[in-house]
Write a structure and sequence with these properties.
Blueprint lengths: L3 E4 L3 H12 L4 E5 L11 E4 L1 H9 L4 H4 L3 E2 L2 E6 L4 E6 L10 E4 H14 L3 E4 L3 E7 L1 E6 L4 E4 L1 E4 L6 H6 L7 E13 L9 E6 L4 E6 L4 E9 L10 H11 L7 H7 L6 E7 L11 E3 L14 H18 L3 H23 L9 H17 L4 H4 L12
Parallel strand pairs: 1-2, 1-12, 2-8, 5-14, 12-18
Antiparallel strand pairs: 3-7, 4-7, 5-6, 9-10, 10-11, 13-16, 13-17, 14-15, 15-16
Helix pairs in contact: 1-4, 1-8, 2-8, 8-9
Length: about 400
């Protein structure tokens, strides 16, 4: 292939570009925003399977140099009583989950992509596509770019997904927004290698403290999809204060001390299945293709797996259509199973105290379940010929 166009310069798009270069293919990333994303106040965790996929394309160091180990999740109730400890499966102690700032991952991936010869163009918002054996992408700035294949890595509200299939199901709102922030030198007492997850009477929240003393926290706010859109920092703090009023939750200390410019809020979605993955020289990766609940902590790792698997298929199968069919065959069952692990339907609500009791018991049982090795220990063999 002479050129592959990637729509979107986030984790999925940049990793796809790096993987394609590892496969000896030319890639151009077209990002809608005029500058690289900054991921203000946000953080993410790369799970063992995500690290494995990065290792396949000689890119794991991009995470290791900027992250810290975070293998345990300590579950606690609104009275700060322990509900159990979830230990995330790893192939060995040296290859467990790593937590890092989202902005640092973006910068590292972008720098590595450029180093490997990837072209990155900003201010390119996709508005249309024409297929003519190859594919031409049209952008909102009245420019166009041609290539042999277009890969949509343009997130939850993917334009590429709707161009592939105008009847594709939209992402479903989960029922909550996630508010995130970071604060230095105001950490609650906690182990530095563990997430603390609190199950309050009205909402859930949690935090982790990095080795340098910065605490990164999140809170899941039950509300309408647009309720927090444009909310001021003062309004976000008031909402969180009301949600966790009267509760003994360690994360509250960090929330109160967070500066205005370190607060961010976003609506959370889930997308269980996309019927049509590829059409007319186009396909999808990452959140454009599957959106799991944040509770799975697999968003970034699954996007990385997509990128590496797709690059292998394009490397080993000369016919593009056949390569895209192979990509779907290798990925669909796994990604839909991952989404199902965090899928939530909103049914009748039980009375508050009973609902909390059943929830806390379910959380305790979850920490005692056998490790879900199929999820975290997935391995991609870059040396495998997928055409075979």
């Amino acid at each position: 292939m002479s050129r592959i166009l990637i729509i979107g310069g986030g984790v999925a798009g940049l990793t796809t570009a790096i993987a394609l270069r590892q496969a000896g293919l030319r890639a151009t990333v077209c990002e809608a925003h005029p500058v690289a994303a900054d991921g203000r106040g946000a953080f993410l965790t790369i799970m063992a399977n995500g690290r494995d996929a990065l290792r396949a394309i000689d890119a794991e160091h991009l995470v290791l140099e900027r992250s810290f180990a975070s293998r345990h999740v300590r579950m606690r109730d609104s009275h700060d009583h322990g509900l159990g400890v979830l230990t995330i499966p790893t192939p060995d102690p040296d290859h467990g989950p790593r937590t890092m700032r989202r902005a640092e991952l973006y910068r590292a991936l972008a720098d590595e992509a450029l180093r490997r010869g990837v072209e990155i163009e900003h201010g390119k918002r996709l508005v249309g596509v024409r297929h003519h054996g190859g594919v031409t992408a049209f952008f909102a700035d009245d420019t166009s770019v041609g290539g042999d294949l277009l890969i949509g890595a343009d997130g939850v509200r993917s334009t590429t997904r709707s161009l592939i299939d105008p009847k594709a199901p939209p992402p479903e709102y989960t029922g909550w927004n996630i508010v995130m922030g970071a604060v230095r030198d105001a950490p609650p007492a906690s182990d530095r290698d563990s997430y603390y997850m609190y199950f309050g009477r009205r909402a859930t929240c949690g935090h982790i403290t990095a080795p340098d003393g910065e605490t990164w926290w999140f809170a899941n706010v039950p509300c309408g999809e647009r309720d927090l859109a444009g909310a001021s920092p003062a309004e976000l703090r008031r909402r969180l204060g009301d949600l966790f009023a009267g509760e003994q939750i360690g994360t509250i200390q960090a929330i109160r001390a967070t500066a205005d410019d370190r607060l961010t809020a976003t609506a959370c979605f889930q997308l269980p299945t996309v019927p049509t993955w590829s059409r007319a020289g186009m396909t999808l990766v990452g959140d454009a293709l599957h959106v799991a609940s944040p509770s799975t902590t697999q968003g970034a790792s699954m996007a990385i797996e997509d990128a590496v698997t797709l690059a292998m298929c394009l490397r080993d199968i000369p016919d593009t259509t056949a390569a895209l069919h192979a990509y779907e065959r290798l990925r669909r069952e796994r990604v839909e199973r991952v989404v199902r692990t965090g899928f939530r339907r909103h049914g009748p609500r039980l009375p508050g105290p009973l609902r909390r009791l059943l929830r806390d018991r379910a959380v305790t049982r979850r920490t005692r379940r056998p490790d879900v090795d199929w999820l975290h220990l997935h391995h991609i063999d870059w040396g495998r010929d997928v055409s075979a």
